[in-house]
Structures are given as C-alpha cells and as structure tokens.
Here is the input.
Amino acid sequence: MTNLKPGIALVDDHALLRNGLSGLVRSFGQYDVLFEACGGLDLIRQLQHTRLPDVVLLDINMPGMDGCETANWLRLHYPDIRILALSMYDTESSIVRILRNGAKGYILKDSAPEELRLALESIIRKGFYAGQQCRPMLVLNERELEFMRLVCTEWTYKEIADRMYLSPRTIDGYRDALFEKLNVRTRVGLAMFAVRSGIVNIEPITTAACVR
Here is the structure.
C-alpha cells in the first residue's frame, strides 16, 4: 500500500505568488501539491473532483469570496481540512477574524521559506501553528479561555471540572494541550501567561486593603 504524502492546496488570486508558493512547497519534498485555486469558489469547485487536501494555504484578501468566508465554508463542510492563512497584513483584527472562522494558523506572505516549512509541519503534526505573528492566545477556543481564567483561582482541577460541567479527565486534557500550545509546564506557568496576555486582570492590592 502506497503511503501518501500530506496533500496541500493553495488558494490565492495572484497567479505568480500562487505558482511560487506551489514550487516552494514542492521543494520541501514532504508534501503533494494537489491543486491551485484562484479564489474561494474555485476551491469549492475543485474539491469535488480531487483528493481532499490535508492543508489549505488560504489567502485572506481575495475578491468575491474572501479568505474568511472560504475558511468558514471549509469549517462547516470539511472540518478535517486544516487551514493555514496567508496575508500581506499583520493586524490583530485580521488574525482574530480568520482564526475564528476556522484557520489553525497564520503567516505573512513575506515570511522566510523556513517559517512556511515549520508552519506546515506544525499544522500536520499538532493541528495548529502559532508563529511570531499569531499570538498563542489567539489559538485558544472559548472553553480553553474559560479554563485559563479558572486556573488563576484557588480552585483545584476537580473543582474547575465541576464548575465547567466537565469530567476531570477532560480538564486534564485541556491542561496538557495548553502546556504544549503555550510552551509552559506548570499551573503557575499557565496563570502567568493568562495575566501577561490579558486573559485575566489582577487587581492591585491597595495600601488600605493591607491594613488590618
């Protein structure tokens, strides 16, 4: 039985950039570029006639059906396809919007080839990519954010599980996944990240509050 390489599809309305990316991905020697599409509607059409890709490299800014609309369509119809968003713009609003619509990572079009290689490897192996442009907190879903806020309380993991109406095993899964996503090893590390990222706000202790 032949072992297929992970399949990649590229979606961008600029032919020269699309062709350049295709050649670059092929040069890595780890992936099959299945097809190129000039936009969201072209992607939808081609998905009906070829092997489904493991990853779609998706431009955000396209005429007609833009990257965010395309990502949302893929999320609803092909949730197993992972999306790595591409853009010329490094703005938090564009990152948040594409991630909320289903993308699992984000890099700039002028990124070094090595970053694209690392991004593809991470998307395939871990299911997400959080590079320099994509702040780790933006790859957290709402339940993970809720868990992060509760980590900063005095509740035990079992009490957090009760609070979130989840099993202790599920909470352990959240914890372990966040350890890997955020590159921390302890609950304190999670709490420190939550504070630094603004997920929780710590009220300063006033002088009056210290007086007994």
Observations:
- Confidence is low (pLDDT under 50) at residues 204-212.
- Residues 161 and 167 are 6 Å apart (CA to CA).
- The first helix runs from residue 15 to 27.
